[in-house]
Amino acid sequence: MKFTATMVLVPAICMGMLSAHADNLRPAPDQRLLNSADTRLLDEKVYIVQLAEPPALNYRGRAGGMAATRPVRGQRFDARSANVRQYSQHLTESHDDLLRTVGAYTGKLYSYRYAFNGFAARLSSIQAQKLRSRKDVLNVW
Predict the structure, then answer these.
(1) In which element (H, E) is residue 51 found?
(2) Beta bridge pairs of residue 46
(3) In what order do the strands lie in the sheet with 45-51?
(4) What pTM does this model have?
(5) What sign results for the dihedral spanned by CA atoms 127, 131, 132, 133?
(6) Could you give the 3-state DSSP secondary structure of residue 108?
(7) How far apart are CA 137 and CA 106, in angstroms?
(8) Are 83 and 69 in contact (CB under 8 A)?
């Protein structure tokens, strides 16, 4: 049997067209079958949350609290100093505690501690709204 270009190309083209549109052949998920956790995941976005407590670069200390981490005039900020590490750890823990209060502890992507006090996290719109309503939160983007 002699093969022609048509015999080879037509099936190849058809297979390519089928695979290119295979995603359209899959049924969309039935929203009624999704549980509340699944629907929350569909709503999640990455937010940046800014907290009212000062970052390490601006922390002046408090009576009976941790030592100041703000550099004295003429000195450079030292992120490796014991005071900055201690205060940074405090900020990170406060980020984690705040995320726990809205049920999003596992959503944290990054903690900002030195020039900005806040975090980036994957949150639902409801969780973001709960954070916006708190007095210790300045902004939620």
Answers:
(1) strand 45-51
(2) 122
(3) 108-112, 118-123, 45-51, 137-140
(4) 0.70
(5) positive
(6) strand
(7) 19
(8) yes
Q: Which residues are paired to 119 by β-bridges?
A: 49, 111
In angstroms, rounded to a whole number, what is the distance separating the alpha carbons of residues 70 and 114?
10
As a whole number of angstroms, the distance between CA 122 and CA 94 comes to 17
What is the C-alpha to C-alpha distance for residues 32 and 51, in angstroms, rounded to an integer? 37
Paired tokens of 47: 């937010």
pLDDT digits (tens, 9 = 90+) for 46-75: 999 999 999 999 999 987 889 999 999 999
Amino acid (1-letter code) at residue 132: R
AA letter at 71 = P
- Please work out, in degrees rounded to the nearest 5, the angle formed at the alpha carbon of residue 96 by the alpha carbons of 116 and 60: 40
d(CA 141, CA 138): 10
Whole-number Å distance between alpha carbons of 128 and 141: 9
Give the model's pLDDT for residue 23: 45
Tokens of 114: 């030195």
Percent of residues, the chain, with pLDDT higher than 90: 66
